[in-house]
Write a structure and sequence with these properties.
With about 400 residues, this protein is of the alpha/beta class. The protein folds into four domains: about 1-55, no CATH class; about 75-240, Rossmann fold (3-Layer(aba) Sandwich), CATH 3.40.50.720; about 255-325, no CATH class; about 330-385, no CATH class. The chain is about 40% helix and about 20% strand. InterPro entries: NAD(P)-bd_dom_sf, PDH_N, Prephen_DH, TYRAAT1/2, TYRAAT2_C.
């Protein structure tokens, strides 16, 4: 059997042993380098190029090719806008999973990106011309609007998926819907962990998401592939509307940051007799103190529920304070802690007068005043005026 390939002028003969033999065809050579020759003259020209090699056909690895194709379909081209601490934190896991990760930031993080196998860009046009399938906004809450407005969206593909990972959700949802063209997909997410809490593992850590605007077909599959970045790490996936998220976040995340910062102002430090509860408070101070004030301010400014929670926290503190003072035996406490070293001064009974007062008010006697005020636990002020 002889098979002729006119493009390369080869003939392949199957020998008796089943091994194909390839040689230059001596019967089909109409042209060489565009110049017509007779077959006899052409054969003299290329006689030195005759092939007399025997080679076995290489088996085709269909299973390996199929596996490679499946792996390729799982890989995303992810662009990260804002390559600070949090952007680097997410990029490390995405790159480890085999995704192609691009990063854009105004600051120079090229050395860090190179170590993480991430392509880094300082020019927004160059970044967008790489056509990432997914763009993850890892900017601060305060700078998100300005950064988004400055991106050259016309250089992106029309069906690009935009993802935000901010700690508030209603604000970025409304912003993305307002700025992005209708062809762009929008996925609002909040990984409820960061470089500190997610340092070792993401297993069982909550990941909140809301599919604000996702197209059909391949665009839906692309969204699921991005969510698989977190599913595959063991995150607890919670689908929730942006509005519901902000209600829960105000009474949990914002309060946590507020209490942590208040305790930080006290200058708490470790002691030789730390209890477990106190260790927890120290950890809270460390975790919240590691975040920038801009993040904390963003939690307050861009969550409509935060002001109400701050008022509730203040009322709760006042309530506890009043409860303590209402149970305080002021006279006994004054005798135990505020008694001066001098001999007690007798109080003339004829000059006693009583007056109703605020039980939370305490006046100390220093041993030299002409007026002595002592509060009893019934809220009655005994006032004695010394005769001088």
């Amino acid at each position: 059997m002889e098979i002729l390939t006119k493009r390369h002028f080869f003939s392949v003969r199957i020998e008796n042993n089943g091994i194909p033999r390839a040689s230059l065809c001596r019967s089909v050579l109409p042209y060489v380098k565009g110049v017509p020759f007779s077959c006899k003259r052409a054969m003299r020209k290329i006689k030195g190029l005759e092939i007399h090699a025997i080679d076995a056909a290489q088996p085709f690895d269909f299973e390996g090719k199929k596996l490679q194709e499946m792996q390729r379909q799982k890989v995303l081209r992810i662009g990260i806008v804002g390559f600070g601490n949090y952007g680097q934190f997410l990029a490390a896991t995405m790159a480890k999973q085999g995704h192609t990760v691009l990063a854009y930031s105004r600051s120079d993080y090229s050395a860090i990106a190179q170590k993480m196998n991430v392509q880094f860009f300082r020019d927004a046009d160059d970044f967008c011309e790489e056509h990432p399938e997914v763009i993850v906004m890892c900017t601060s809450i305060l700078s998100t609007e300005a950064v988004l407005q400055a991106l050259p969206l016309q250089r992106l593909r029309r069906n690009t998926l935009f993802v935000d990972v901010l700690s508030v959700k209603e604000f970025p949802k409304n912003l993305l819907l307002q700025v992005l063209p209708l062809e762009f997909d929008i996925l609002c997410t909040h990984p409820m962990f960061g470089p500190q809490s997610g340092k070792g593992s993401w297993k069982n850590l909550p990941f909140v998401f809301d599919k604000v605007r996702i197209g059909n077909g391949m665009r839906e599959k692309r969204c699921e592939k991005f969510l698989d970045v977190f599913r595959s790490e063991g995150c607890r996936m919670v689908e929730m509307s942006c509005e519901e998220h902000d209600r829960h976040a105000a009474s949990s995340q914002f309060i946590t940051h507020t209490v942590g910062r208040v305790l930080g102002k006290l200058g708490l430090s470790s002691t030789p007799i730390n209890t477990r509860g106190y260790e927890t408070l120290l950890d809270l101070v460390d975790n919240t103190g590691g975040d920038s004030f801009d993040l904390y301010y963003g939690l307050f400014m861009y969550n409509i529920n935060a002001t109400e929670e701050l008022d509730r926290l203040e009322l709760a503190f006042d309530s506890v304070k009043k409860q303590l003072f209402s149970k305080l035996h002021n006279v006994l406490r004054s005798q135990l802690f505020d008694r001066p070293p001098e001999v007690a001064v007798p109080i003339p009974s004829h000059s006693l007068e009583k007056k109703e007062i605020n039980s939370a008010e305490i006046v100390k006697f220093n041993g030299t005043a002409d007026v002595i005020e002592v509060h009893d636990y019934n809220g009655v002020l005994d006032r004695a005026t010394s005769n001088s």
